[in-house]
Specification:
about 80 residues; alpha+beta; four-stranded mixed β-sheet
Length: about 80
């Protein structure tokens, strides 16, 4: 019998990439997936607290990480 631990989707996403050393990005849960000259990729798993009154991602949740990544070419 093997003792496999199954991780839920939220845990799997939280373990992807690298945590960024920016307090607000840590609060949002933004993870750095890759960064190279002229190209970068970050991950943001949307949570209910990231939404606005219309149940879609709040604009600040989407634009703040992008603003932090100017010059690194991050893509959503």
């Amino acid at each position: 019998m093997t003792n496999k631990v199954q991780l839920n989707a939220a845990t799997q996403l939280a373990n992807l990439g690298e945590e960024l050393n920016v307090p607000f990005l840590k609060l949002l849960g933004v993870r750095l997936i890759s960064a190279e000259m002229g190209k970068g990729e970050i991950l943001l798993a949307l949570k209910p607290e990231h939404t606005n009154t219309w149940d879609v991602a709040h604009g600040g949740v989407l634009t703040y990480p992008n603003g932090c990544c100017y010059g690194r070419g991050c893509a959503f």
